[in-house]
Amino acid sequence: MIGSRLAVGLRVVALASVAAALAGCHHRHLGSALPPTGPTNPNAIPITTLAAASPGGGHGGFACPKGGTPAVCDSAYAITSNPSGLSWSLVDNGNPTQLQPGGGSTGTTPGSATPAVSSHPWQIRFTGGTNGAYGVTIAQVHDGPHSVFYNQQGDSLGRVSTTGLQTVQRLASAAAERSASTASLPVLRRPLARWPVTGVSSTRVFVRYRSAVLAAAGRTPADVERAAGARGHDLPTLQRDPLRVVDVPAGETAPSFASRLQSRADVAGVYPVHLRHPLAKGATAVNDPHMANPIDQWYLNADGFPYAWSYTTGTSATIAVIDTGVDVNNTDLSAKVVFQEKVLGGKVSSTQIDTNGHGTNVASIAAAATNNATGFAGAGYDVKLMAFDIFSDATSSSDQQNGDTGDEAIAIGDAVAHGADVINLSLGAAEDAGGNGYDQGEHDAIEAAIAANVTVVAAAGNDADGSESGTPHTDLDYPAAYDGVIAVGASALDDKNSGTYTNATEVVADYSQYGPGLGVVAPGGRPCIGQGGTGSCNDTDLLHWIWNYSSTTAAYPPDQCTYANGTLPKTPTNCTALFAGTSQATPQVSAAAALLVALAGGHRPLKPAQIAQILESTADNINDRHQGHGRLNAYRALASLVADTAAFSGPVPQAHGTAQLIAFAYANSGSATPTILDYNYPAGVPIASDGTFRIADVRPADAATYKVGVWYDANGDGVIDAGDYVGVSSASCTSSAPCAVGTITLSAVSGKYTLP
Known about the structure:
Rossmann fold; six-stranded antiparallel beta sheet; alpha+beta; nine-stranded mixed beta sheet; Alpha-Beta Plaits; 17% helix; 25% strand
């Protein structure tokens, strides 16, 4: 539907009822090696922190005793290097030219530093290396002494082959585009890339113009489009060359129009506009007497939201839900909407209506009015709501809404312009024949939003079990797969059909897509769990669903609310339905992000990478190989932001986040369990989004020689085994000289493995 699929998961089940009240191993350390040419790319810092995430970079740290004084608990860092006598400074991680105020901000090794309590992380930055400055990100987390080491003599660079990795495929595409659109390069006559046969719009294309060529000829993009019999609309982008979504002229196909434009000297590139549709699975109708007394919002309790609200109710933050719109007849939502917009075919209007129910459900989970004695509580409590409708209206004969990424990109830009702090995208790619949902306009709009300090949260997708397409898709769906987006999977409760929450086991739902890049999971439900799949069991257990509002204006009869007992009045707030899927998990994470925004001061005080790190580092480990960094814990996330050590004991240590690709130095050949020699990164060195990494923290005392590997620990068990991906450099490295690590290619592990 927008070339999108609204990420619901298991589609709506309408029901009528008055809402019933009811109520690891290695430490993951902070830090990021700086690339050779400048400050660290935020996408390459999956473990920067604000406060009380993991202990600061390097070795050490302990749980601060309850009531411990700063003198006992403050994080202090011993700084050493090889050779000794190297210069270091304690700087603002986001601005390496800004020293920490006061004494102890510069020195030579050996030395020591104690970072101040701050709303941003610090970085111990070493200078003078042949590969540029080397930084280890730290924070004042009140957990005692640490040590940081820089081996300048053994400072080595490596790269992992990006083939088959979603993140780097995206980056390579973006880099190629930037290269081709640079004004100083000669005008290229590039052949048009393969145009997807399915999953893309037949009436619109994205066009990247060459601003220098247009300026030299005294033309604008609109001039080019008028001459071609078309019209376009500006889109947000961080590139110097403008990007527009352009209507295909009548009587012409999208591929032929793209080919015609591509031949022009003032056009840098033409790209397909992908379709998106609601990520919805088939429904299982529910009409059972147990709905009279349900555990209706178990999911907010599982996430810890009631405790999170004790820190803030989110008044100063705003969530934009880009979806099928919101039912403004619902007084639990209309009171929260501060901006609404319909975008369809490039035409923008100031009113929208939800003819499907999906958008209303997502918005309700995120932001329904709370503590007003009406209906459901919203995870965001008092957060403000922006409602965007980018889908064609449902009809009496079909709910198959369609939308495209051109409209989505416009909506993203408008959400940013009107002050959104968080953007929720519970939608995903329609499968195309090429199997790649990367979309240039969608990518650029999201990239621009993130650069404006807007956090973007998106559903991971619901096709890991192949129930949507017939072929399992385990990698993240787009737009969740873009760099910088917090990708959200769905967890579910397996209560053995007991209907008892306390006896349930939480697992990742089998439909929830995963893989490198997954941030966290949140409750999304799983009807018929353990009973042979959706639709085969008439599931009446509310613990298997996410129950919340749907739309009173739904047009398709199966999506409309029904009142089987004939006694309940139809009011604006009692149209409810059962949903399940990554769509329902995503607004819970969006709400947690908005609460962090509000607690930090309101309106974009934190960078999206910081919000992602807080949510990921405080997530609960539910011991599922597809959980990403864990299941969302809003309580722990907010407590960590204010270093509430009385209420918050710190994150549960995990062996490896399953969303994390790491590089590591080792010397224990013949083992399937690597003994990681990296001193600052004992759980492995983070890899930048372009595939590069830096090994500069192996101490000569720990190993005279070593080898370097790259690893994706799929099940997070700390052992290289079936399902993992691993690769090892052929170089034999020494800690006293740079190593020619080269490019490492990953291979899937299918059986027993030992390190070479």
